[in-house]
Amino acid sequence: MPAPDGVAALREIAYLMERTLTDPYRVRAFRAAADVVAGLSDAEHARIAGTAAWRELPGVGETTATVLAQAAAGRVPDRLAKLRTEARPLAVGGEGLLAQLRGDLHTHTDASDGSVPPEQSRAVAAALGYEYLAITDHSPRLTVANGLSAERLRAQLADLAVLNREDGPRLLTGIEVDILPTGGLDQDGELLDELDVVVASVHSELRMAAEPMTHRMVAAIADPRTDVLGHCTGRLVTGGRGTRPQSTFDAEVVFEACRQFDVAVEINSRPERADPPDDLLALARETGCLFAIDSDAHAPGQLEFPAYGAARAVAAGIPAERIVNTWPLADLLAWTRSRG
Length: 340
Fold this sequence. Notes:
The protein has 340 residues and is α/β, with parallel strands linked by helices. It contains 14 helices and 7 strands.
């Protein structure tokens, strides 16, 4: 591959680190340095490149300065070359299904707890060959993730409308809305009606007893605004946040509700979630549910995570036609709009 410029090199390093869940603090240093350099005037960039004075810039440390100097010299930076050599397919077994995915229905931006604005995620979606990408930042109750108030969400919708005037994958308006302990959805109902995609997920009181948790989830599924049931058990099986057992609920009742109300069960592709577990994935298939293979990406490199979900879907025997994000955009939107 040709030698990239310094900004592209820093962003590619960050991307390759993100796809393997490298510590986000380490990744952030590369993206921050890229943003600083990208903001330089042509004259200032030429001056600093000519003197290799990259360390003068705020947020540029020894490692990122080395990347910039090597790129300015017309070579592939050593760190990038190493990461490219080490890059491997994330999963084996779902390649054919992965190629059929037309988009991703669960992604986050820097408006909540993601790392980049939607235009950077959209560029990756274009490279992946996607037709659409849903922007589903968190709802207001999840303050730890900087969830969006109704006012902030409306501002985001206006921004996405502007971006959608440009060529590229369609940015679908959406939200990952918290399922409240009562089963309600954590956002203004009229605003939810305006969105293309609503992913409803439990983020709190995960250890609730099985019976009330079942009622809670079914109430959210029955809400006509809900399109996708996100990471249904809430489990964590590995990763920097530690592990967490799955929530307990009557899965037969929950998946039957998904089938009856035409809500897709998310196959959450984050490797630390792999949610639902294999036994529940099989039960949802047997029940006749629809599915959505989603990345739950919080960074551009994580948009490749559906490779994990596709492999699991193939292993579970789920046919492509029951995976809603294999559908063309018009069919997908006809489905989500029929539910509201």
